[in-house]
Design a protein that fits this description.
Order of helices and strands of chain A: HEHEHEEHHHHEHHEHEHHEH
Number of helices of chain A: 13
Largest sheet of chain A: 8 strands, mixed
Distance between the termini of chain A: 20 Å
Radius of gyration of chain A: 21 Å
Shape of chain B: elongated
Largest sheet of chain B: 8 strands, mixed
Radius of gyration of chain B: 24 Å
Helix content of chain B: 40-55%
Oligomer: heterodimer
Strand content of chain B: 5-15%
Structural class of chain A: alpha/beta
Number of strands of chain A: 8
Chain lengths: 320, 356
């Protein structure tokens, strides 16, 4: 198997590389987490950071109601690859379209492809079969980093997938092996096995879990880490604890009592309790990002970038 | 405002649907109702608060509340509901076992797109016929877009509508409806099905063919049931509660879903803006410039933002639609006492204070 570029300097060299170096060596970074915790902001921020470290990055979104472009201050993708900054591209995908394109690409002969696409079995499956669309999306990422992209972006170094909030992150990452289990033979089975191997390859694919430091999101994060380990033997690169209240300061402690001070103290205590729990349950890196008083758009992205940059200069999780 | 006999809580992921659903049940019990809350895998502590655990999957357990009414809670599980439906609609034991033992069914039945949503409304339908409950609250699974939930029953039915598939899979059966031996399934020439056969392999198509063949006799029962479920979702006694967050991008999402609900003939009863930061307290009187180390500065900003978004929603929704703001609590709503607090906000201030 071909070793992707940049892997040699992240491991086997003794000193642990920084998280940013580690992420820059990957070909696919899946950003996952419960709804509303800030996955899209983290995806865009990572995209900026990796692009400014010299990688060519494609941000992949799977949401008919696009939102990444707001942060990057570009036009919505509408399915097209949109350049957002030097080395940074954006694409919003419709999973069904990805599957259809995969069929066209694999079958080459137009008549056959049209027949398959028109067949009721295919149509039923493309819409309803579990894992098929997810496998298609991950397969698209694989095709791109292997240099089979469209003219607009022949070969990104790394694809960052802003994972949809549906269900657990495990089901997205498990999809290719589920499809490979059910479709045991034929080119589809073969393709699914290739995609499953890509996702399972620690030198190529990394997972980042975003959470807020609150009860339910941390609960889901802990369950996701366990599920990734027990079902897929995967380990996330890092957890990003987003939207933290500022630490309750010594000055605030002596400022007397007021509803605002009380709320601040309580919310921060929830953050502290949940951060402590996260650190008990997960022995990898946790980056802390404060709640930022910015409504959205490029300003928010810029602020998040400076917050995350320092966190990513810390050491990477141990491989193993 | 008391919930409808059937109340469905909808909203985008992460806005607090499960909390609002649980609080509606708690509040209904305090108002003297016999309430049932059905939810998907909530956090462990909320499960503790409601007294449900994995052993209660597919069953209902009674939650001890100090209230004139009663509260029960159930965890929804797609696979066990699907199995139960197969048991109900299979004409005989043989066809039932053929489905339950089919590899396609065992691999896929729990995870087909839309199955969870379909099974949720199916459970709602079962519970609606249960005389023990006069208020039933259904939490809905997280979906990419909140409205996926409503389209799911039709999607899953489309998938199961074996008519088209049985025709497509015909070459795999002989005249008596028995599966043909593997070797040659007739000469399909260059048809797309032959190619699919090459593409995904024969054994999958055989499993599938067998599944849809076995499912045939059940289909009519499923279809009728799905129609009844659809009618129930639009019935006068069924109301929707739409939960929204306070981030600026949430408002258009919430409006979009509110419109879709009404267009589809559902009854939207109220919009709940959850986790609203306080305003009008000393938070507002922070007069120094923004200080990112001072939580009060942040709270002041969040308070202004949340009220701006709530006001925007209120004006977009218009006079006729009740909009309730639930303040951000100092604690997380994972205990019965905090659920009671949320319930008091939901049900209006006339409710007696039970926490004292």
């Amino acid at each position: 198997m071909r070793e992707p570029e940049g892997v040699g300097n992240t491991s086997r060299s003794g000193a642990p590389a920084s998280l940013l170096d580690r992420l820059a060596s990957l070909q696919l970074v899946v950003v996952t987490g419960k709804g509303g915790v800030g996955k899209t902001l983290v995806s865009a921020t990572l995209g900026r950071l990796l692009a400014s470290s010299g990688r060519s990055v494609l941000l992949m979104e799977i949401d008919p109601r696009e939102s990444l472009h707001h942060l990057l201050d570009v036009a919505p993708s509408g399915g097209e690859i949109v350049p957002a900054a030097p080395g940074l591209f954006l694409q919003n995908l419709l999973p069904r379209q990805v599957l259809d394109e995969l069929v066209r690409e694999r079958l080459k002969v137009g008549v056959l492809a049209r027949r398959v696409l028109a067949s009721p079995i295919y149509q039923h499956f493309a819409e309803g079969a579990p894992g098929l669309k997810e496998t298609g999306v991950l397969g698209r990422a694989l095709r791109l980093v292997e240099g089979h992209g469209p003219r607009a972006l022949r070969r990104p170094d790394v694809v960052i997938l802003d994972a949809p909030a549906t269900g657990h992150g495990v089901s997205l990452l498990q999809a290719p092996s589920l499809v490979a289990d059910v479709v045991r033979s034929g080119p589809v089975g073969h393709l699914a096995r290739q995609i499953a191997a890509f996702v399972a390859d620690r030198q190529r694919t990394g997972i980042i879990i975003v959470t807020s430091a609150e009860e339910m999101p941390v609960q889901e994060t802990v369950e996701l880490i366990r599920g990734l380990d027990s079902i897929l033997e995967l380990r996330p690169e890092m957890v990003i604890a987003n939207a933290l209240y500022p630490p309750f300061s010594a000055a605030a402690r002596t400022a007397g009592k007021s509803p605002a001070l009380e709320l601040w103290r309580h919310r921060r205590r929830i953050n502290d309790t949940q951060l402590a729990r996260l650190e008990r349950e997960w022995n990898g890196p946790v980056a802390r990002v404060p709640l930022l008083p910015i409504d959205g758009g490029p300003q928010l992205l810029k602020a998040a970038e400076s917050q995350l940059r320092s966190a990513l200069h810390g050491p990477a999780a141990e491989n193993g | 405002m008391l919930p409808d006999r059937l109340t469905i809580v909808v909203g985008a992921g992460g806005v607090g649907k499960t909390t609002i659903a649980a609080a509606l049940g708690v509040g209904a019990a305090h108002a003297g109702r016999n309430a049932l809350v059905m939810t998907f895998d909530p956090s462990l502590r909320l499960k503790d608060a409601l007294g449900v655990d994995d052993a209660a999957r597919g069953l209902e357990v009674e939650v001890p509340v100090d209230a004139p009414g009663s509260l029960s809670a159930g965890l929804l599980d797609a696979r066990s509901t699907f199995d139960r439906l197969v048991h109900r609609y299979a004409p005989d034991q043989e066809s039932r076992d053929r489905i339950l033992g089919n590899r396609f069914y065992t691999h896929l039945a729990g995870s087909l797109a839309g199955v969870l949503e379909y099974m949720a409304v199916e459970r709602l339908f079962e519970a609606a016929a249960d005389p023990r409950y006069d208020t039933i609250v259904l939490d809905t699974p997280p979906t990419r877009q909140a409205l996926d939930f409503l389209a799911a029953p039709e999607r899953i039915l489309g998938f199961l509508s074996s008519g088209a598939l049985r025709i497509a899979l015909k070459p795999w059966f002989d005249k008596d409806g028995h599966l043909r031996p593997t070797a040659r399934l007739g000469r399909l020439g260059r048809s797309a099905e032959a190619f699919l056969d090459h593409l995904v392999g024969l054994d999958l198509l055989r499993d599938m063919a067998e599944f849809f063949q076995a499912f045939g006799p059940l289909y009519e029962g499923f279809r009728q049931r799905a129609q009844q479920v659809q009618d129930l979702l639009r019935a006068p006694g069924t109301g929707f509660v739409l939960v929204s967050g306070t981030e600026p991008l949430r408002a258009p999402d919430t409006m979009f879903f509110a419109r879709r609900l009404e267009e589809a003939g559902h009854h939207l009863r109220q919009v709940v803006v959850n986790r609203v930061h306080p305003r009008g307290t000393d938070v507002e009187q922070v007069d120094h410039p923004y200080d990112d180390r001072d939580g009060r500065s942040l709270l002041a900003w969040l308070g202004r933002r949340d009220h701006r978004v709530a006001a925007e929603l209120r004006s977009l929704l218009g006079e006729g639609m009740p909009l309730i703001e639930i303040p951000l609590l100092a604690e997380e709503p994972t205990e019965l006492s905090s659920l009671e607090r949320v319930a008091r906000h939901l049900f209006g201030s006339r409710k007696k204070d039970h926490a004292g």
